[in-house]
Write a structure and sequence with these properties.
alpha/beta
């Protein structure tokens, strides 16, 4: 894992852009784009969105992203895959700690670079020539809720005409799916009806959580089936939404349970052995120097390929 002091040049490059965004009326902005080619100019029909605190990015984030970019059974045949790493400057449940937003954005840029390289390698392993075009954006939003984030991305014009952007596929954990379908987040009526605008255009790809708190596969399947069977209609839910939600496998039995909290504890304790199980190398060495040279405009975004 790259030490924060090694990230300092990259951190500094994000500071001005982040301050400008926070002081602006904008609710969403892409700050950096990393690509395996010039594909960032190519319109896409599907935008994968990995929305997290990235405090820090972990192997779990990497697996979720790779699974969607490479193995999504509903993916269209577009030669270009596009993923947005999204950081909210406000959170409905959490205060920002311990890493500040500039540091997280720097780690996200390294993570984006690693994703590009991983997809290229997987394409080669599958018999391709490493030519799968993949674009990874690093973006920020002031909106704390999934529903609002989807709307501000549609209205931004970043990915198409304002109000008519591509299908968004939000990559979540099962715990985040439960929060998405929790009426308490939708005042003033506190029901699920506002989610109709999300599910009418977009999809959710939720990775199973295997900790006891969330139950096993049977309990998680039953949770989704209850929605499909109309058992959430009294809360404003729609049974058709279930067809827009994919539950996909996550950690296999016997594999390390990964969380950002565990990474922070291992980092504080200087537990290198545990860290190696939780985070990747995140493109150390020459590539880090190259990425540190990113120039980010406060009004726009930088591109690195």
């Amino acid at each position: 894992m790259v030490a924060l002091k090694e990230l300092q040049p990259l951190v500094q490059n994000f500071q001005a852009a982040l301050r400008a965004f926070i002081s602006s009326p904008s609710s969403f902005r892409v700050l950096a784009t990393l690509s395996s080619s010039t594909a960032f100019y190519t319109p896409v029909k599907t935008l994968y969105v990995l929305d997290s605190s990235f405090n820090p990015p972990t192997l779990a984030h990497l697996r979720i992203a790779i699974s969607a970019l490479v193995y999504d059974k509903h993916a269209n045949s577009s030669p270009t895959k596009r993923l947005l790493l999204l950081l909210a400057t406000q959170n409905a449940d959490k205060a920002p700690k311990p890493a500040n937003f500039e540091q997280r954005l720097a780690m996200m840029a390294l993570f984006a670079d690693e994703l590009v390289q991983c997809v290229r390698s997987l394409d080669e392993e599958k018999g391709g020539r490493g030519g799968q075009a993949v674009v990874v954006d690093v973006g920020v939003t002031k909106s704390p809720l999934y529903l609002d984030k989807a709307s501000v991305m549609d209205q931004s014009g970043q990915y198409g005409e304002i109000g008519s952007g591509p299908e968004q596929v939000h990559l979540t954990g099962f715990d985040s799916l439960i929060r998405l379908l929790d009426p308490k987040y939708y005042p003033p009526n506190h029901n699920l009806q506002p989610l109709e605008s999300l599910f009418s255009k977009h999809r959710i790809r939720a990775t199973r959580r295997t900790e006891d708190k969330w139950g096993g596969p049977k309990e998680q399947d039953a949770y989704l089936k209850a929605l499909a069977d109309g058992e959430r209609e009294s809360e404003g839910g729609n049974s058709e939404w279930a067809s827009k939600i994919d539950l996909v496998e996550g950690r296999q039995e016997g594999e390390e349970i990964i969380s950002s909290t565990k990474v922070r504890v291992a980092s504080k304790d200087r537990d290198k052995e545990t860290l190696e199980k939780l985070v990747s190398e995140q493109r150390e060495g020459a590539r880090l120097i190259e990425l540190a040279a990113i120039r980010i405009s406060p009004q726009g975004h930088a591109c690195v390929d």
